[in-house]
Amino acid sequence: MARASGAFFMATLVIWAISISWEILINKRTDLVPIVLGFIFYQSANWVIRISHPNPNPLFINTCVSLLHSSTTSTSLVFLLTNQLIKVNINQMLEHSQLVDHTWPYAYTSLCFSCGYFAYDQLDMLIHRLYNEFIPSILVHHLLLLVCFTLALYRNVTINYLILTLICEIHSVFLHMRKVRRMAGFRDSTSVVVKVEWVFNWTSFVLARVVTHVFITVKLIRDASKFDKGGVELPLALFGMAGMNLLNAFLGIDLFKAYRREMNPPRTHQNHRD
């Protein structure tokens, strides 16, 4: 069962790579080249960390590269969205036509680069088996993103919608930061640094992940009549957001369990004799 699961996701990744290569080389879609550059960039970061680390731990390296992606993406999104808000107000920015038919400056390239990262991360996790072999939710998550992102990039539609979904990477910064910290051996739950980190972790989880994705889902439903009838954009978007919201629920449960474990570590009881 586990091997079949890994083989399935590897096969879908190979098919995705062939599709991207066909579009770039045969159909001359040079606008998709940043996908390849994104893959190369994050794979190169993986190699650099692996070479510089005396005892490379695949999970530690993967988490460090994930932290690099979430930090890079969050920074680019803040720049991208701020740049757009300078030009128009937020109501105009969130109009249906703006989110579906138009593309904000740098949004297409940014989405391509992240698409390259998810392909890299999928491959890295498959090679090193960095996933739950019985319930590979992270592989499902990446496959879902690759399908939605790639189809949108091929047709150049709903790019801005997908950029909004990436706001969740702000939370991923603190998620990966915590994981790197613990793997580095710093686990003092009484530390001010750890407590502040958890404040940012929970705040960004609620605002950047839960609220953002629920908002996008509600807006898709409210604007359903504005989508082209018979088109795949709305069904695919609703399916994708349903998956994202479900994964957010599971992530919230895991995060709460991790918080309880870290804030209430097991105590060693000692018997003292007079």
Automatic annotation (TrEMBL):
GO CC terms of this entry: plasma membrane
Name of the protein: TLC domain-containing protein
Annotated compartments: Membrane
Transmembrane residue ranges: 6-25, 32-53, 59-81, 134-153, 159-177, 198-216, 236-256
Organism the protein comes from: Anisodus tanguticus
Alphabetized UniProt keyword annotations: Membrane, Transmembrane, Transmembrane helix
One Pfam family it belongs to: TRAM_LAG1_CLN8
Transmembrane is among the record's keywords: yes
Topology within the bilayer: Multi-pass membrane protein
UniProt domain TLC: residue ranges: 55-264
Keyword Transmembrane belongs to the record: yes
Biological processes per GO annotation: membrane assembly; phospholipid homeostasis; plasma membrane organization; regulation of membrane lipid distribution
